[in-house]
Amino acid sequence: MSHDDFPTDRPAVVTCGLPYANGDLHIGHLRTYVGGDVYSRALDRLGQEAAFVSGSDMHGTPVAVNAEQEGVSPEDFALDWHERYAETFPKFNVEFGNYGHTHDETNTELTQELVRDLDEAGHLYEKEIMVAYDPVDDQYLPDRYVEGTCPYCGAHARGDECDEGCQRHLEPGEIEDPESTITGNPAEYRERTHEFFAVSEFADYLSEFLDRLEGTPNARNQPREWIEQGLQDWCITRDMDWGIDYPGDDGEQDLVLYVWVDAPIEYIASTKQYSERVGSDAFDWETAWKEGASDEFPEGGEIVHVIGRDIIQHHTIFWPAMLEATDHAEPRAVMASGFVTLDGKGFSTSRDRAVWADEYLDEGFHPDPLRYYLATNGGFQQDVDFSWEKFAERVNTELVGTVGNFLYRSLLFAHRNYEDGPDADALSEDVAARIDEAVEDVTAAVNDYSVRALGDAVTDLARFGNEYIQRNEPWKLVDEEPDEAERVIYDCVALAKAIAVLFEPLAPEKSERLWDQLGEPGSVHDATVEAAGEAPAGDLSEPTELFEQIEDERVEALNEKLDARVAESESDDGGDAGNDDDGGDDGSDANTEDTDMSDIEPLSDDRISFDEFQELDIRVGRIEEADGIDGADDLVKLTVDLGAETRTIVAGLKQLHDVDDLPDTKVIVLANMEKAELFGVESNGMVLAAGEGADLLTTYEDAGPGTKVK
């Protein structure tokens, strides 16, 4: 691993969190996989050698529970879902170099080998622990067969994770008031011998690792709290018969490895399978993953994990400790995405309140607009709210109105006026400089791990193109200044070629179609950013519009279908969501169930007068600058334009928002809040936000900085 800017000479591996093989995919799941695919393709555009890999998580209690309910074996159940996923991802142009699964021979062998290495190095030990046991059904209850109360925050929790509260990983025996999810019986704790990985020995290493780690801020900041609180050793075995056998088990315990041992090892297994298919000369998996496997790169390759934010702990604590203990390369970066909500509410699979992957395609929509929406709607670590209205607005405004409009009007004019394509000695200086700037923006976006900025670079370039053609009006020059008209359109065709190259990571299919319309040789998928600045050389074909407008009537019809489906589902189950965990190691829809009304803080009975309200000076502000405060895990120093003056305000947003995305955000500020000094910075006001996720309050339309809220 290096910390040099991409592209580097080292082999890179981009991975996505493994989906549990136990349920349909919806667009909430797709956010992580689209993000990983976009990032991997962007690395390819820079000329970085990279393998994009993932696989289905076949093991764990969710699979076993659901298989039992359907009366089939866990293997048959999980393989069926694995095959469906392998068919679904390409439909959204998510193209893994290899997509495997955790139950195959490669992963089984690598997992047992790595666990043996941990044992031989002295990092494993046996320990008697209390395990939940159903005395009525006479069986031990591993993780997801148990529910109860989180010992840390008091929220309702699964046996392996406080999924509804503090998000902490829970060890066997920790959950309070345990209850069997199989029978509903109260469970009791009994002693049982299990294997533990001494994660606590790696606390110093992990703290230093987080200092080096790149990616999204939440992936670096969230784990620090767990280290500061003191790391607990990790139980790596479970009492069940579905999974990879613990290699040291003598058969008496019937232990299998915990799913979070073999799941991340699938990243290595899938890379190995990719290497075996393309040949080690094309990509050497050992150079990428093993320290010392290459004399040229003894520290290994560039490993980038793209995950959901609810599995940060596994990828920044457990997994790097395993890698360090077994002489594997540590991850260079972890990109942790936010969740996807629907019209401001959480996805609910039990209530059928979701936009399913197949449903989106069945409606006749192309995959690339959804890819663009998921990748560019907010910073990667922020939650994305999907609605058909918002989706249509982004498609109509940005893809149709900006990108598509420039491409179609330019290429149609060129095709009709220049049989073999427009010709000029060279690009205009300002156009060449603008293309170079867009390439620099794309390179910066890759190194900032910002898929949103990748999209912004393209739409900004198309916006420049629209302004350029409108300013020069070649249709007025054709008769009186034909050479100048041809030069302008030559510039526009060059801009279109650059857009095709730079837009490929987000809209690969549409970019290939544009490449064909430009008559460029080969495939846009093989073009690097150098091609973006090269002169257009193809024979233009008659263009067609790349993106379709979504009409209001279509949005209304889609909403009616969704509302009817949700209503029918709620009437069928009495509105009870039950346990809505549909799995997904990527974490893309965890914790997005409707908030239980019992969790809402009751309204205050204490009232204030209108005069008291008038004393609050609440203003619209616009964030101009945002910088993290050294030594403060949560705090950001904001420079906020309040119209009459600019204020410095300190806000606890660092772990909840991408700091780089905060500038230009309109916010609501309590301007007459008492000043306070925080970490040496004077805060002059308070930015208002809602909920634990610090959902920033803003304005609906165009109220400018300084406008008073009343």
What are the key terms here?
single chain, 710 residues, alpha+beta, Methionyl-trna Synthetase, domain 2, Isoleucyl-tRNA Synthetase, Domain 1, 4 domains, 27 strands, globular, Rossmann-like_a/b/a_fold, zinc, Anticodon_Met, cytoplasm, ATP binding
> What would you call the shape?
globular
- Under CATH, the homologous superfamily of the largest domain reads HUPs
Contiguous low-pLDDT stretches (5 residues minimum) are 574-584, 586-602
- Just give the CATH class of the largest domain: Alpha Beta
CATH architect. name of the largest domain: 3-Layer(aba) Sandwich
Q: Numbering strands along the chain, what is their spatial order in the largest sheet?
A: 3-2-1-14-15-10
Q: Mean pLDDT across all residues, rounded?
A: 89
**So how many helices?**
20
The largest β sheet comes out as: 6 strands, parallel
Enzyme class: ligase
Protein name: Methionine--tRNA ligase
Main location: cytoplasm
Binding site for ATP: 349
